[in-house]
Amino acid sequence: MTEISALEDNSQQLVDHQNCNLTALLQKINTKTARVSVIGLGYVGLPFLLEKAKVGLNVIGIDRLSHRVAAVKAGKSYITGIDDAELQQVIASGLVDTTTDYAGLVDADVIVICVPTPLDKNLCPDLQYVVHVAQHIAKYLQRGQLVSLESTTYPGTTQEIIKPILEENGLIAGEDFFLAHSPERVDPGNQRYNTINTNKVVGGNDPQSLIAAEAFYKLAIENVVSVSSAKVAEMVKVFENTYRAVNIALANEMALLCDRMDINVWEVLDAAFTKPFGIMPFYPGPGVGGHCIPVDPHYLEWKAKEFHFQTRFIMLASEINRKMPKFVVDKIARLLNQKQKALNGANVLMLGITYKKDVPDYRESPALIIYELLQRAGVNIGYHDPFVPEIELDGHKIVSMELNSTIVGGADLVLITTAHTTIDYQKIVDQAQIVLDTRNVTKGMQTNKVVLL
Ligand SMILES: NC(=O)c1ccc[n+]([C@@H]2O[C@H](COP(=O)([O-])OP(=O)(O)OC[C@H]3O[C@@H](n4cnc5c(N)ncnc54)[C@H](O)[C@@H]3O)[C@@H](O)[C@H]2O)c1
């Protein structure tokens, strides 16, 4: 055999081998006999698990927290938007199991990673959860498996971090197993858009991986948007969240200026958003919170530095958004001052501890920062949040207060930090001495007791 024909022979064998792994996986996906493993059963992972079981796939959920594993088995939901009845119905189908043990990954055809991607204390990416999970997957990785990362991260993570860890097993991505990134876009609490009717972006490590991932995601999602690489898919997600962070910062900056100029920023924005083109509504608030907006842009900012590039919009947006809690505290001080009261010793009732309305999630919530700033200034602060019965701050347990006329009327100022729809704001305004509304939930109320952000 000549050298050229030996090379051709080898490359033909490689193509056959790739095709054989891909064909077998596609066959299982298309006949819905593929077994799916979801790692990380939180806001992203649990809805994902249910969505796949609902289309008839066998799904095993893995979480390091045994109480979450047990709760799912018992049909007890801990995630907003999923009620116990829905969970129990899916569990009753017999298609779902949960465990803390990774050994079951051996039998999976598709493995989906939904673990947290937070920042460390220097605002740098903390990929410890993703790395830990990838190391576990590498131990059990099999030929023909598809591994897909759903966690939000900087462009390059799938190929630069996950791929080498998985390949330590001796298998090659794109040949022996398939690797993709498909960023989750779930919006907890959104009544209109769920994981099925929200377009899903998918990027593969290589063309074969993309084919496998597209086939998998199309099973349960109405519209799959394929992009040319995992890196592009990663960039799509961080761009989306940067877009939100920057536009919220713009609205916040307008609020800071309007405060100085004595202009009602809400009136300005509402009128501006009547323009039917070229503008999208974004509103100011007490700051940004949650697992995405204050976090994800910094993943991109960090990665950009590797290319000697400064993401100035991200830096500026972060600076403005992080200023808002302090601005709220300063405004409270001004309002109390007008009543000849000091912050020190004042009674303030905070309405809402979560970062957005109608969800129980208070991770990175600006309300927590405001709470601490007020406490440090000597304010007697208490909170009410129908979704958060208690919080722990500096090792101290703080319990949500009852809402009654004594508590509301007894506060020198009521601060609205979250626009939960179950609170009767008209009643609050009627009973309160003065209200600082950072969400414009009192819009339309005829009163001189309310001051807007
Ligand atoms: N929450 C959202 O609205 C949202 C939306 C889009 C994307 N995301 C992204 O999705 C990812 C997951 O976010 P989330 O909100 O679901 O997080 P979460 O904290 O709600 O859930 C993560 C789960 O992973 C588990 N976990 C952590 N390490 C593990 C390990 N080594 N093995 C097994 N389980 C492990 C945790 O116990 C937890 O149950 C993040 O990257 C986030 O940025 C979140």
Protein architecture, described:
This protein has helices at 3-30, 45-54, 66-73, 84-92, 128-140, 157-167, 207-218, 230-261, 265-272, 296-305, 312-338, 366-376, 405-410, 425-431, and strands at residues 35-39, 58-62, 96-99, 110-113, 146-149, 178-181, 200-204, 224-227, 347-351, 380-384, 390-393, 396-399, 413-416, 435-437, 450-452. The protein is α/β, with parallel strands linked by helices and 453 residues long. Helix 1 (3-30) packs parallel to helix 7, helix 8 packs parallel to helix 11 (312-338) and helix 11 crosses helix 12 (366-376). The relative contact order is 0.08. The protein has 14 helices and 15 strands. The strands form three sheets. Strands 3-2-1-4-5-6-7-8 form an eight-stranded mixed β-sheet, with helices on both faces. Strands 10-9-13-14-15 form a five-stranded parallel β-sheet. It has a two-stranded antiparallel sheet with strand order 11-12. It is elongated, with a radius of gyration of 25 Å. Bound molecules: nicotinamide-adenine-dinucleotide (NAD). Nicotinamide-adenine-dinucleotide (NAD) binds next to helix 5.
Task: Outline the fold blueprint.
Blueprint: H1 3-30, E1 35-39, H2 45-54, E2 58-62, H3 66-73, H4 84-92, E3 96-99, E4 110-113, H5 128-140, E5 146-149, H6 157-167, E6 178-181, E7 200-204, H7 207-218, E8 224-227, H8 230-261, H9 265-272, H10 296-305, H11 312-338, E9 347-351, H12 366-376, E10 380-384, E11 390-393, E12 396-399, H13 405-410, E13 413-416, H14 425-431, E14 435-437, E15 450-452
Parallel strand pairs: 1-2, 1-4, 2-3, 4-5, 5-6, 7-8, 9-10, 9-13, 13-14, 14-15
Antiparallel strand pairs: 6-7, 11-12
Helix pairs in contact: 1-7, 5-6, 8-10, 8-11, 11-12
